[in-house]
Amino acid sequence: MKQRQDAWSEENDLLLAETVLRHVREGSTQLNAFEEVGDKLNRTSAACGFRWNAVVRHQYEKALQLAKKQRKQKMRATGKGQPAKKKLLYAPPETAAPQQIKEEEPVDVQTYEPAIMVYSAPEEQPEFDDLEGVSYSSLKQPAAPAPELTMDQIIAFLETYESRATHSTALKQENIRLKRELDDLARRNEDLELKIAKMEEDSDTIQEDYETLMKIMNRARKLTLFDEEDRTSPKFKMDRNGNLEKVAE
């Protein structure tokens, strides 16, 4: 079962390009080339096709056009101007006949060296003679240079940078102000907590004094009751004239 690898290396891309261009030049299909590369690199043909169309093809556009011209030239030479059917240069191992198709040896990606594909033009097409000894890899289009910065772009960048710096300074000042307010509130909260603690302590003292006072009052009330019980009632007697006199005890 084919397993997808993590990333494509430069050797993989070069092998894919060489194989596709060879199939196109010989009159085969790109799908057949994708199958061949997929078997060599242990990838699916769909993954090879996606890699070719998304990345590699843009780098070998000139080489692809040249391969198509070579295919047309070969068809004219062999088919006498009649359109020929495309032939498949590669067959997967499960469908290949051992007597007809020679099994290709696997390609070692680490030691793979691209072959130099030399175009040999027919006598009636001398315009391709100057391409002898030139490989398709040499037709790879160079990467586009990075665009140069204009003065307006530099000024806009500096203005944006200054605006961001000003905004950052304002945020720092606001942060300092909020920290000061937070410290002030923390101090006020601490003072209030001390006052509350003192009030609670005073409340406990008042409660203790109140309880002591109530005990004293209760004791005084009991003593008063005891004194009243100990007192005896006064005795009176009537004299000759009918007046009441207190009898001394």
From TrEMBL:
Entry protein name: RsfA family transcriptional regulator
Positions with biased composition (Basic and acidic residues): 231-249
Residues covered by the Myb-like domain: 1-56
Protein origin, superkingdom: Bacteria
Entry keyword Coiled coil: yes
InterPro entries per the UniProt record, alphabetical: RsfA-like (IPR014243), SANT/Myb (IPR001005)
Entry keyword annotation includes Coiled coil: yes
UniProt feature coiled coil, ranges: 168-209
Keywords of this entry: Coiled coil
Region (Disordered): 228-249
